[in-house]
Amino acid sequence: QVTLRESGPALVNPTQTLTLTCTFSGFSLSTSPMSMSWIRQPPGKALEWLARIDWDDDKYYSTSLKTRLTISKDTSKNQVVLTMTNMDPVDTATYYCARVNQYYESSGYYVHALDIWGQGTKVTVSS
Amino acid sequence: QSVLTQPPSVSAAPGQKVTISCSGSSSNIGNNYVSWYQQLPGTAPKLLIYDNNKRPSGIPDRFSGSKSGTSATLGITGLQTGDEADYYCGTWDSSLSGYVFGTGTKVTVL
After folding, report:
1. Which residues sit opposite B88 in a β-bridge?
2. For chain A, which end, N or C, has fewer CB atoms within 10 Å of the first or last residue's CB respectively?
3. How far apart (Å, rounded) are the C-alpha atoms in residues B49 and B60?
4. Residues of chain B that touch chain A, judged by Cβ-Cβ distance less than 8 Å
């Protein structure tokens, strides 16, 4: 059974750095073609993809947020960590981690879907 | 700043059918698999359709997906009150090298 669980602070001060951890079970991120992503959703708004990390440590970031984001993994702990610097009230959102189901062809890796999601963690940015 | 465009809302009576469109471009829908996600009120999104038209185990066949060119469509037949939710399309964008979601569609059962 695959499960994902996000954890992190519920309240962050403006200008601080946010660190979120996704702890997962039921699969290994050290095996091809495993991959994980972070997504967020401001209250009442649409989903926004943030970042992705692959089994081989390839990383991808939202073009609008890439200067503020860092994604990393600890395969021994089955964890993926997202840090976001210089937090602002507009970053108030529920943050989700999700498993990326992808496949490999000779031309590279291709995404099927984000097939398993965590329950999300709500982050408020306020002083 | 969603890259994929969906209608804000659709509605129909119980038992009826609704369709939700998702419009993109050649860099996303046109050359990558489309997925659909269902988000019930107060819960995390759940995968509903993957690879344009495939259903994960446990998803009833009342839900269907299709893709043509740079657009995709989600269909829900035999509408039930439990289908009231927000629905999002999603796919990889090869130009952005990132995953993109639709603007989201709220389904209301009248």
Report:
1. B37
2. N
3. 11
4. 1-2, 32-33, 35, 37, 43-47, 50-51, 56, 88, 90-92, 96-104
